[in-house]
Design a protein that fits this description.
CATH class of the largest domain in chain B: Mainly Alpha
Number of helices of chain C: 11
Helix content of chain B: 55-70%
Number of strands of chain B: 0
Number of helices of chain B: 4
Number of domains of chain C: 2
Distance between the termini of chain B: 68 Å
Shape of chain B: flat
Radius of gyration of chain B: 26 Å
Oligomer: heterotrimer
Chains: A alpha/beta (about 575), B mainly alpha (about 150), C alpha+beta (about 260)
Number of strands of chain C: 7
Strand order of the largest sheet of chain C: 2-1-5-3-4
CATH architecture of the largest domain in chain C: Orthogonal Bundle
Low-confidence stretches of chain B: none
Structural class of chain B: mainly alpha
Chain lengths: ~575, ~150, ~260
């Protein structure tokens, strides 16, 4: 028996983008009932772990044009320039709004918001709050959202399926993790803001919850996933745990050194020019891998790494601007950055790709919107600049909310009995999965194999001969994941069932990553194919679209929206 | 879990009961052995001493108001070694509470950068002159035999 | 290098168990594991029926609070090598238990919302909202003004302080350390104009004066928020607010939000 709930707009995912969308809906029209459905309490969303800062034009020596150009160039000219233009225009307004909502930004002497340098940015435009911007932004948004009574939260509810009628999205099916009951939540617009899917890789900065659920939801409903091959490896993660050491360490003047103590980004030519440690993330990650391959990596218990040296910055600067980094290094790797260099290596951090959206945050399905990491505007193209993604959550979260409000004004409800049938069908599927003793595959085993395939096939450097087997292996896993064995038969707070549902989503997302990577026979941004080491604008200046098909993902192409800037050689 | 004591059955309970049955909240099992919690319990126990001391205070004040013979009785009682021991216990309790209070009190003040700034000069001068004038007035009245 | 340890874990399924019970697991633990790594290993490889909350594993999301050997700890931050051969894992104290190591959070969410933790009555909101640059659209704040509340904004809502607080254990109406610290954080933020309302809540329904300064909350806080400082500053401010309220008339609060 599926209980039915009715709202005007549903937001799936309660992180930075989701909460911003909810506030946008509540402010646009307080009479609308806005449901925020999240599988964790919103303050646990992974936005909380972002450290460095959020970018927007702030200083007099900066301009919207400069921010736009940096972003286009950073994206290796795959970013859609209309989306980027809108983004840089809205960015200062959104971050100012965040400040007015109470975000405790760090300040200059004169009391204005302080900005720091960041990778790929020609001037200081990253607004920061010590080194915990994501934490402060998420908590500010969550607390601000609490004043709006029109926002109704469904905390710890796992969305399993989009309800679609007549080609339009009409709601979601959600598993109430607490009771184990299935609910059908109906609305005339759904905004997906569930974040990325870094957990398909074994070594990632991402937390447990980043399993690509929203991407899989849209994908299975027939919406394309765009540019999935572009996975960002953040240059500096702690070996072993993968915990993020923010780019701000380099923004504040930190140096990357190899085993011989050389600042290899300066001493060797890795394409970052004078920017050195402040080059874009894809280039620096490649540089580190090259150093390790050349035998100049430092050997450790969790593989080889390079050193991030902050010792010359001084305790005072570290304590005031990078206190969280100090805490993380001391707690998780036993190193005191004031006196010792921090071991770091490239780690999966962000997915540039995601649900195919446009400048309105809308998708090909009427009523369905997406914003934040789960979406691909494409703002970030083939490589994202650090500190753009938090601002992206705000700008497109707000846009998605506003567009959804506009959309439902002309909308009638769908055929409820059809939707209830769809929901009951999904409820049966989930009931059969719970405590499925007769299965043959173990969740942790499939997860391990999936991780291994992706790591080998879709690393920093990829080869056609490693990507092809990855595609085959993940396709095989898609078959095996339908035969999972689950031990936990309980109804209340069954986390094994959630892990199984997440694993199914991860396999779908991983397949799109592998298939998209295989077909892109060039190197652009974060996708580096050793068989085709150069960028090929003649043949590959397009967005990869990946559609669900039972026989295997179907690839299509979408034009890149160019604008002020024509593709040129990406040199720093 | 026999060793752990239950907390208040409504502790951290939601305004509306949750949709599934919950097990009652329990106290931390470390409270029985933790040195900090033992210190906190002693801090709380000093309340009993103050209660008894307040009875003693009422008795003394009543004696003061009941004439010289009644007061002599009060003084005799106060000289009793048991009562002196009780007063020593009061002194120790107050010392204990003061140490704890001054240890914890500083963080009840808002954080600030550098030392506290004094009030502006005119205000400071007005306060000091006012204090001087007031003290002069009171002393003059006392010397003139107005009080005492 | 590994060490063999025994974990005594609280189990409770409301559909099957009358009261919580314990279950023992013996596993080989890596030397650099945190407590959470051990619990995840048990769930992945030994007994997948255990339910627990966790996410970021870097001490910032606040999900993984549990009692380890009777003390509230953030299990992703607590190294296993400071414990012995047997480690007791229980759900957070002072909270109703939903399942195994998962506790009921709605009580906290209610208290959280009660202190109105958002910027209220902001000055010049309309003009700043219309601006499109940082200089015109934001407030100025000095380093000292930021310092007055910054520490209290670091709370990750892990609720270890609620488990440690003797008053939370005995008085259900008490708002508790994290909620009061958050309300106080907004009171001390120069951008906020809602001090009157929050101080009234502190004095009345919130019973902030129930705090007996045990200081346990600050002892267990994994982020150095020092909620005890916030609660006791809040007590002062609430009294001063009451006193000034006797002398100065103030406008009625802007309706019930």
């Amino acid at each position: 028996m599926v209980e039915v709930f009715r709202h005007d707009i549903i937001i799936v995912g309660g992180g930075g983008a989701g909460l911003r969308a909810a506030i946008a809906v509540a402010e646009a029209d307080p009479s609308l009932s806005c449901a925020v459905v999240s599988k964790v309490y919103p303050m646990r969303s992974h936005t909380v772990s972002a450290e460095g800062g959020a970018a927007a034009v702030a200083r007099d020596d900066d301009s919207l044009e400069m921010h736009g150009y940096d972003t286009v160039k950073g994206s290796d000219f795959l970013g859609d320039q209309d989306v980027i233009k809108y983004f840089v225009e809205q960015a200062p307004k959104e971050l100012s709004q965040l400040e007015r909502w109470g975000c405790p930004f760090s300040r200059n002497e004169d009391g204005t918001v302080a900005t720091r340098a960041f990778g790929g940015m020609t001037t200081k435009r990253t607004w920061y709050a010590a080194d915990k911007i994501g934490f402060h932004m998420l908590h500010t948004l969550f607390q601000t959202s609490m004043q709006h009574e029109s926002i109704v939260r469904y905390d710890e509810h796992f969305v399993t399926k989009l309800l679609v009628d007549g080609g339009q999205v009409r709601g979601v099916v959600a598993l109430d993790i607490r009771t184990g009951n299935i609910k059908a939540i109906l609305a005339n617009a759904v905004i997906i803001t569930t974040g990325g899917g870094g957990k398909v890789f074994p070594f990632t900065t991402n937390g447990m919850i980043k399993t690509g659920d929203g991407m899989a939801l849209a994908y299975r409903a027939g919406v394309a996933l765009k540019d999935m091959e572009f996975v960002q490896y953040h240059p500096t993660g702690l070996p072993g745990t993968g915990i993020l050491i923010t780019e701000a360490t380099r923004g504040e003047g930190g140096h990357l050194k190899n085993s011989e103590g050389e600042r290899f980004l300066v001493d060797y030519d890795y394409g970052v020019g004078t920017k050195a440690e402040l080059g874009p993330r894809d280039m620096i990650s490649r540089a580190i891998v090259q150093e390790i391959r050349a035998g100049r990596g430092v050997k450790g218990a969790y593989g080889e790494y390079v050193n991030l040296d902050l010792t010359h910055l001084g305790a005072e600067k570290l304590n005031s601007r990078l206190p969280f980094v100090l805490e993380l290094a001391r707690t998780y790797i036993g190193v005191d950055p004031v006196h010792q260099p921090i071991p770091v290596r490239p780690v999966v951090h962000y997915m540039m790709g995601g649900i195919d959206t446009d400048i309105t945050a809308g998708t090909s399905m009427p009523g369905l919107y997406a914003a934040g990491e789960v979406a691909c505007g494409s703002l970030n193209g083939a490589n994202r600049l650090g500190s753009n993604s938090l601002t992206e959550c705000l700008v497109f979260g707000a846009r998605a909310g506003e567009e959804a409000v506009r959309f439902i004004a002309g909308s009638d409800g769908g055929n409820e009995s059809v939707l209830q049938d769809q929901a009951s069908e999904d409820a049966d599927r989930i009931e059969q999965l719970r405590g499925r003793q007769k299965g043959g595959e173990k969740i942790s085993q499939i997860r391990r194999e999936l991780n291994k395939s992706l790591e080998e096939g879709c690393g920093v450097y990829r080869q056609q001969e490693s990507m092809a087997p990855a595609v085959a292996e993940v396709a095989a896993l898609r078959g095996r994941v339908s035969d999972l064995k689950l031990e936990d038969e309980s109804r209340v707070f069954n986390t094994e069932l959630i892990a199984a549902l997440e694993l199914i989503n991860m396999v779908d997302v991983a397949e799109t990553v592998a298939v998209s990577a295989l077909q892109r026979k060039e190197s652009r941004g974060a996708h580096t194919c050793e068989d085709f080491p150069h960028r090929d604008d003649q043949n590959y200046l397009y967005h990869t679209l990946c559609y669900f098909d039972p026989a295997g993902p179907r690839i299509d192409k979408k034009d890149v929206t160019l604008g002020t800037w024509e593709p040129e050689e990406r040199k720093y | 879990m026999p060793a752990t004591k239950a907390a208040h059955p409504e502790a951290m309970a939601p305004a509306v009961n949750g949709p599934t049955r919950t097990a009652p909240p329990m106290q931390p099992s470390s409270w029985k052995t933790s040195p900090r919690m033992k210190q906190y319990s002693r801090f709380g126990l000093t309340g009993w001493i103050y209660l008894l001391a307040s009875f003693a205070a009422i008795y003394i004040v009543y004696g003061l108001g009941s004439g010289p013979e009644a007061y002599a009785q009060v003084q005799a009682l106060l000289a009793n070694p048991l009562v002196i021991a009780f007063h020593l216990l009061c002194l120790i309790s107050v010392g204990f509470v003061l140490v704890r209070f001054f240890g914890l009190f500083p963080k009840a003040q808002p954080a600030r950068i550098g030392p506290a700034k004094p009030p502006p000069q005119p205000v400071l001068k007005a306060m000091l002159y006012g204090l001087w004038a007031g003290a002069t007035l009171v002393l003059s009245v006392i010397l003139a035999g107005g009080i005492f | 290098m590994t060490t063999r340890r025994k974990f005594v874990v609280t189990r409770f399924d409301p559909d099957k168990d009358e009261v919580p019970k314990t279950q023992e697991y013996e596993i080989e633990c890596q030397d650099d594991w945190k407590v959470l790594d051990a619990i995840n290993f048990i769930k992945d490889e030994v007994d997948s029926t255990i339910s627990h909350r966790w996410s970021c594993r870097m001490a910032v999301c606040g999900s993984c609070g549990m009692m380890v050997d009777g003390e509230p700890k953030l299990t992703c931050k607590t190294a296993l090598d400071s414990y012995g051969d047997t480690v007791e894992i229980e759900p957070l104290a002072n909270f109703p238990v939903v399942k195994d190591l998962v506790v009921e959070l709605e009580g906290f969410m209610g208290k959280f919302q009660q202190v109105k933790p958002w910027i209220m009555n902001a000055k010049e909101e309309a003009e700043k909202k219309a601006a499109s640059t940082m200089k015109e659209g934001t407030y100025r704040q000095s380093a000292e003004e930021l310092m007055a509340f910054k520490q209290f904004s670091m709370c990750i809502n892990c609720m270890l302080c609620y488990s440690a607080c003797p008053v939370v254990s005995n008085e259900p109406d008490f708002l508790g350390p994290a909620a009061i610290a958050l309300g106080h954080r907004y009171n001390m933020d120069t951008r906020d104009g809602g001090q009157d309302e929050r101080n009234q809540i502190f004095r009345e329904e919130g019973t902030v004066f129930s705090c007996s300064y045990a200081n346990e909350c600050s002892e267990v806080c994994p982020k150095g928020v020092d909620p005890a400082a916030a609660v006791n500053q809040a007590k002062f401010n609430a009294v001063i607010d009451w006193a000034t309220g006797l002398v100065v008339s103030r406008p009625a609060p802007q309706g019930d939000e």
